[in-house]
Fold each of these.
Amino acid sequence: MSDLYHLIYKSEAKKPLDACELTELAKLARFKNFIYQLSGLLIYSEQRFFQVLEGKLSSIELIYQKIEEDDRHENIVLLTKEPIASRTFWRWNMGLTIIDDDSDIKQQLVNYMQSNINLAAANKNDAGFILEAFSRETFQNYIQ
């Protein structure tokens, strides 16, 4: 069995974060993920986070424990943790996508998903659909 896993969770930021704060958060995550050989994606929309972590199970579990202890967010919900054959976000130690009402990506996601993106209500099936969307080059162009 492969030791390559992905873990997907959602949470709520305790306060709204602007683009500068999110960029700094992503920089710190990139540094830590580089050390632990993790890749992934962080999506932020309407004060909610959706994050994918990819890598060795032991590293993912260690980082996820630290995420759970981080007091910048709450209502953390693990959507899935399962083995994967290969990484989807291998190009990024931590990619960042900010989705706001006037962003091009929001409309493209709505068109792709044929419904409005709602991270608050996201479940395991939605997580898979969002993951599938961002595995496509069209959406990867929006990852910083």
Note: Residues 41 and 95 are 4 Å apart (CA to CA).
Amino acid sequence: MNEPLRNVARRGFLERCGLAGWTLAALRTDASRRRYFRLRDGAGASLILMDAPPETNPPLDGFIATARILAEAGLSVPRVHEADPGQGFMLLEDFGDALLADVITKFPKRAAMLYGETLRAIAQLQARADARALPIRTSGERARLSLPAIDDYAAPLAPTPPGARERLLAALEEALFRLAPESATPVHRDCHAENLVWLPDRRGLARVGWLDFQDAEQGHPAYDPVSLLCDARRDLSADLVTRMKALFLAETGSDPAEFEAAWATLGAQRNLRILGIFARLARREGKPGYLAHMPRVWRQLMRHLAHPDLRDLRDAALATLPEPTPAILARLAEPCPTPPAP
């Protein structure tokens, strides 16, 4: 991306929207190729500018369509004020800075209430939303999402044993295939405390604000609860996770044994993928801060793989993937010798 040209395009979009005089401040972002800015007019009004260059991001039309699906289910999503999908710019309602992660850090006794309201909102989304307009993946496609665990985590550390990649992929695809009949509910795909905003001035489940939902698809109803409660970036107590799982089961009427099997399978798939993504962010994109989370991701992966239904997947993973010890993390912190072209 040519930064000077992008800056010119951004200014042009703001001028067309009548916002040339508003101040612009960059916001913190996670592992994203999008950038966000807060616009202020000096009189108390504010908006969020999403800058998503089309050459490195999916079309904005998907974000707009998904926002409509979530809003129709009664969830709080940022209102779209203006959009230029061709250039990758969008003006959004400003939900403020009260990320669930920050609120829980400041007020830890509110964690159960905040996670509980989020899970109730997930249950409401699953009960009310029409997921048919969202994309759906086959079990094989979902399994391949976790190949970064080998390609970006294990392979740069040591040669991959012959057939190991295929064995891991086959075991994961088989496990996911057993869940396929349930794959018809809306799934955020990245539901965690840094993608949720607490909106205390609203009522009921509308107090949970949803961000970064542009990758939503059809999937298993256990996926978003796993993503929320098995957070790669923070530890939740075992007691809190148990209570929140019970709450979700009560809200949805899901079969406990089937839910536990899905919890383990989807948790394993997600954490395998995260291992690879965090390793790639560290080695190829110069973001070693993600390595601090990898021991937690590994612990979660091991807990999920302990489920008896995942014996083959556990064997394949342990035969291929090293534990992220301090020595391994130190090697991953070394920059990639041939960084990708910008």
Note: Residues 100-332 form a domain with the Aminoglycoside 3'-phosphotransferase; Chain: A, domain 2 fold (CATH 3.90.1200.10).
Amino acid sequence: MIAQIREQLYELFKSSEVHSIALSDPQPTNFIEYTWLWILESYGEFGLFLIFYLSMAFLYALGGLFFYFCDKFHWFQSRKIQIKKYPTSDDIKRCINNLVTNYILIVLPLGIISFPFSRILGMQHSLPLPPVWRFLFDMLLCLIGEDFFHYWMHRFFHTPWFYKNIHKEHHYYTAPFGFTASYAHPVEVVFLGLATFAPAFILRPHFITFYSWFILRQLDAVLTHSGYDIELFPFNLLPTYGGTAFHDYHHKEFTCNYGSRFTWLDKLLGTYKEKKSPTKSN
């Protein structure tokens, strides 16, 4: 196993070299496949990974900034869950410092290490890309699977020792804001990251689905930590989706609502509590 991992890591960095696709390989049939193939030919598999990583970080920052502006300029205040509770400049600085550290020292290495396991499991970069229905179906299964694994991992982190020494850091903010989605102790980032990897490793989808899933997971986390229950976002169309109010209440009460986004497992196991709807403005 160690030899396989070492070989796949070597292949990852070797693949950063520009290479061409043989004529016998499947040819692109649409804009997305042409773009995917162009990136592979121009930058290799490692270059594609870096583009994904930077895109994930950029979209996380963009989502966090959007909700920062909601707080600063009082947008969507009728959807604000914890009324008149806004992060201070010190709160934001503390959060950003933690995020930068985690993204560079934890998230990036985890992404690189995951590559050999993905290749060993048979995941591919090559064409053809999955059809839309398969892409959406795999994404839905990842959402459901991650929610299941996250529930148990999260509940484990609420046992006395792990909460006191690890998970308490994430609960520093009882009124979370968008940037706090990945604010956590490094150990928690690793273990809850495993909950995100798990459904993808079980499904073994195409890499475009694998990468898209991680971006979606981060955006969903920003939304559920935003402090705003905005029903326009498409996640609310999913059955049993608890949304921001569901997770915001966990940050306020601590011992309930352990799922990432769905309420079904908390309701089934008696750990669900409902947050009152935000006060509507006149």
Note: The radius of gyration is 20 Å.
